[in-house]
Design a protein that fits this description.
Blueprint (H helix, E strand, L loop, with lengths): L1 H44 L3 H36 L6 H32 L2 H9 L2 H4 L27
Helix pairs in contact: 2-3
Amino acid sequence: MKRIRKIANVLMVTVLTILASSQIYAQNFEHQGKGERFDAMCQMLNLTESQQAKMNTLKTDQMKQMLQFSNRLNELKARQQTLTTADKADMKAINANIDEITALKNKMMKQKAKHIQDVRALLTDEQRVIFDSHSQMGERGDGFKNGHKKGNKQGCKGMNREYKEK
C-alpha cells in the first residue's frame, strides 16, 4: 500500500512539473513569435537606416499617445463598473460615461489610422505594397499598426544585415 502511494505521489509531482514547464515554454514561445513576425516584416520591407530611425520615432510617439488613451479608457471603464453596480443606478451618468468611452475609442481609432498613414508615407512604392499586403499582422496587434505595442520593442534595430539608401 505504501509503495502504491509513493508511486502515485511521484507520478503526480512528475505530471505537475511537466504541466508547469509546458506553460512557461508556451508563454516564451508566444512572445518570441510576435517579435519574429515583426522582424520578418522589417526584413520584407528592407528598410534603410533613415527609414528605421523615422519608424522608431513614429513608434515611440504612437506608444506614448496610445498609453495615455489606454490609461484614460481604463479609468472610464472602472467608472462605468462603479456606476452600473450602484444600488440606485444613475442612467444619466451611465450614458454620459458611455459617451466618453465611445468618444475616446473614436480618437484612438483616428490616431491609429493616422499612424498607419505616417508609416506608409515613409515607405517606397514597393515597400508600401508589401506593407499593405501584410496588413493583417497589425490587426492581431503584433505588427506596425498599433504602435508596436506587442511587437519587438526595439523596432527593426539590431538586425544583422546591411541597409542601402535607395
